[in-house]
Design a protein that fits this description.
seven-stranded mixed sheet, 238 residues, alpha+beta, elongated, Outer membrane lipoprotein wza fold like
Length: 238
């Protein structure tokens, strides 16, 4: 008889423990979903989500399958250049038109299309801007960068400055017009490309140090050497 009641007690204890577990999971899941929806709702109204994609730029796409609880899916997660017709080409789903879409609209579009391949897809979309590095860089050219990056990220992408690069005189041109001068100080204060107003299509130009400046330095060195040589000769003569 005692064994019977003991088994009943154990079964009830296990039952209540299991029910409590599922109740807590349900609460956490519903809270997570609600938080995700609220966060997404707020993000959809933000300025970053209203960025309009244009040909020549690029988009960084990160994809998760929330049901698997794993890191980003390497099959889809990468940077995609936008072709002249306004499309990107992705594995499995092929061409995706992005021209004219905001980041939020593209995110919704991709999640719908990924649902055919993933159980519970979650997509993060980040616009990339196109910036041309000109002048005294080892690898000048056009680069697609995250607007949250810094000047140093751009300089690194361009192979670093040349030996005679004048970093203190870097300027920004837009459509042939200088819009910013001596931007190094802004980046030293920790501002990003986006925060100081760098836009897609801008040219960042680093001039070289003037030849006159180098000639002055060489002249000073030669003068110093001549003075030292004269001093040594006079000292030996004494």
């Amino acid at each position: 008889m005692g064994d019977h009641w003991m088994r009943v007690f154990i079964r009830r204890a296990v039952y209540y423990r299991v029910m409590t577990y599922f109740f807590l999971v349900a609460c956490v899941t519903s809270s997570s979903v609600a938080a995700r929806q609220e966060s997404r709702s707020e993000w959809s109204k933000s300025a970053k989500s209203l960025t309009i994609f244009q040909p020549g730029n690029a988009v960084r796409i990160l994809v998760w399958d929330l049901d698997k609880g794993q890191d980003t899916d390497v099959t889809f997660s990468r940077d995609y250049p936008i072709n002249p017709d306004g499309y990107i080409i992705m594995p499995l789903i092929g061409e995706v038109r992005v021209k004219g879409l905001t980041a939020f609209e593209l995110m919704q579009n991709l999640e719908e299309r990924f649902s055919a391949y993933l159980m519970n897809p979650y997509v993060y979309v980040r616009p990339l801007i196109r910036v041309t590095m000109q002048g005294a860089f080892n690898q000048p050219g056009s680069y697609r960068m995250d607007p949250q990056g810094s000047l140093w990220d751009l300089v690194r992408a361009a192979g670093g400055p040349t030996a005679n690069c004048d970093l203190t005189s870097i300027r920004v041109e837009r459509g042939g017009t200088v819009v910013m001068n001596k931007i190094l100080e802004s980046f030293e204060r920790g501002y990003s490309l986006e925060e100081i107003g760098i836009e897609s299509g801008d040219q960042i130009i680093a001039p070289t140090r003037g030849r006159l400046e180098l000639q002055v330095i060489i002249s000073v060195i030669n003068l110093f050497a001549s003075v030292m040589l004269l001093y040594l000769r006079l000292k030996q003569g004494w």
